[in-house]
Amino acid sequence: MIAVGRRPLKTPSALPGFAATMTATLVALAVVVLAPLAALLLKASTLGFGGVVEVALQPRVLASLRVTFGMAIAAALVDLVFGLCVAWTLTRYAFPGRRLLDAMVDLPFALPTAVAGIALSTLYAPNGWLGAVLAKVGVKVAYTPWGILVALVFVGLPFVVRTVEPIIATLEREQEEASATLGATRLSTLWRVVIPELTPALLTGVALAFARGVGEYGSVIFIAGNVPYLSEITPLLIVVKLEEYDYAGATALAAIMLAIAFVMLLAINAAQSWTRRSLVHV
Amino acid sequence: MSDLAAAPRPAAVADESVSARGVLIAVTAGFLGLFLLAPLLVVAVEASNKGWSGYVSALADPDARAAIALTLVVAAIVVPLNTAFGLCAAWAIAKFQFRGKNLLTTLIDLPFSVSPVVSGLVFVLLFGAQGLMGNWLAAHHVQIIFAVPGIVLATLFVTFPFVAREVTPLMQQQGTAEEEAALTLGASGLTLFRTVTLPNVKWALLTGVLLANARSMGEFGAVSVVSGHIRGLTNTIPLQVEILYNEYSIAAAFALASLLAALALVTLGLKTFLEYRGGVARHDR
């Protein structure tokens, strides 16, 4: 079929209410989301590209970006390994308590970050239940960069589990059985048949966990210790600059975070459409 | 024939051994216990550290009560607004074909990708004393930042996608045939929405409302930036928890935090139940 002219803005429909609901949607979106974000971009544009880069290259900012990104990547990788294990176990095996554990996986979505922050901090403090045990082997978690890792593993876990679970549930057992009858060991089947099928979903989950980890604030600041150059995350540095009335600095940092979030959104969309394609393919 | 029957069943090979299963289940239970259960237990134990009377007096403190009241007020404003918006967006996106649909969906989901701190900062840059509209607001004696309107706006921003995101895919999946049938039978727009569309998506809608509510009551980063932390006036429960914790009023901090933890558990329980009901409802159709 040859497309003639431009596709119409809207395909005609018998159903009522398009104009009203679309207007309401666009107005709400513009007032609540787009106008405030535009204010940030406008303010950032007065600094210019050079001004933003100058802030980004401040040693304290660079250190915060390093620890934020480093820990977000590390946490996403921990979530990748354990999230896959959790998703596989909860989908494939039947055991008592499975449903309860499965419902619990969403806890980091539902528990306010401040509550998670003070709970994890109390847990891993040198006199806390886990902190005391770790202190005996000379490991300090709370008030060090490792505390950031713990908090980010917590908030990122459901992203990996919930992205991978549906794909595991739709895997066709016949492929695994075929692999087994052809003489592959179970481990080799998992590695060569199952993992490739799960790769797009795993990547999506890791990207979602990473994106969340980079922006996370509430659960981190209680456990991190927040020492500049060592355990100070970028979102906290924005707050610090704001409290010092350094609006330009805060804006530049926020613009950087927003640009990163935008790139991550594109990457996640790409990974998600790959997931969908692989689903259709199966 | 008998050879085939004697061959080992492939299904037995295509599974992990019993011991491997045991190890994986143990790792899963251990990891979830360590990262999910332990923090919840800490909240419960620390909140009850000073006994029942200590718990009650922590919640009865005037600043704590003001924080609880403010949190309820903010949720009571934000959740209905975002529910109405979410239903509008779901209707427009799910039932009609138009250009730019993907862009619109992406823009609605945008708040999920923005750091909570940035979500608060954008309102400071717009309405704060140094902000774009700061002079105009000051001239008209309107205060948004460091006041309740700022908290409401920041909470609206962070909970914006929840309802639309839960309802739209389900509405899309159900197509337009039932609505068109109702239309030919003479139903008006609102009637067909209320009697045909809404019953079909009610479980997803409830899930979205629950999640939006939990997030609006628990939001910390965005609200922290716009609130100004004025005790008894602009502190929500999470902000009051932070203040108490930093003052080493640990038991009082965890007493307030236990309210939010209980809210999270109730939300999770209801969500699990609603998803189960939604699954059953879809299965019956």
- CATH fold type of chain A: MetI-like fold
The largest sheet of chain A is:
none
- Name of the CATH class of the largest domain in chain B: Mainly Alpha
Give the domain tally of chain B: 2
Count of beta strands of chain A: 0
Q: Find the structural class of chain B using helix and strand composition.
A: mainly alpha
Q: Sheet with the most strands of chain B?
A: none
Strand-helix topology:
The complex is a heterodimer of chains A (282) and B (285).
Chain A (H helix, E strand, L loop, with lengths): L17 H39 L2 H34 L5 H7 L2 H4 L2 H12 L4 H8 L8 H26 L2 H9 L4 H30 L2 H7 L9 H10 L3 H35 L1
Chain B lengths: L1 H5 L3 H4 L4 H30 L3 H10 L1 H34 L5 H13 L2 H12 L6 H6 L8 H11 L3 H12 L3 H8 L4 H30 L2 H7 L9 H10 L3 H35 L1
Helix pairs in contact in B: 3-15, 4-15, 5-9, 5-10, 5-12, 7-9, 7-13, 9-13, 10-12, 11-12, 12-15, 14-15
Task: Please explain how this structure is put together.
The complex is a heterodimer of chains A (282) and B (285). Chain A is 78% helix and 0% strand. With 282 residues, chain A is an all-alpha fold. Chain A has a single domain, classed as MetI-like (MetI-like fold, Orthogonal Bundle). In chain A, helix 2 (59-92) runs parallel beside helix 7. Chain A is globular, with a radius of gyration of 23 Å. Chain A starts with 17 loop residues before the first helix and ends with a helix. The model of chain A has no long low-confidence stretch (mean pLDDT 90). Chain B is an all-alpha fold and 285 residues long. The longest helix of chain B has 35 residues, at 250-284. Chains A and B meet through helix 1, helix 2, helix 3, helix 4 and helix 5 of A and helix 2, helix 3, helix 5, helix 6 and helix 7 of B. Chain A: GO terms for molecular function: ABC-type sulfate transporter activity. Chain A: The complex is composed of two ATP-binding proteins (CysA), two transmembrane proteins (CysT and CysW) and a solute-binding protein (CysP). Chain A: One of its GO terms (cellular component) is plasma membrane. Chain A: Its main location: membrane.
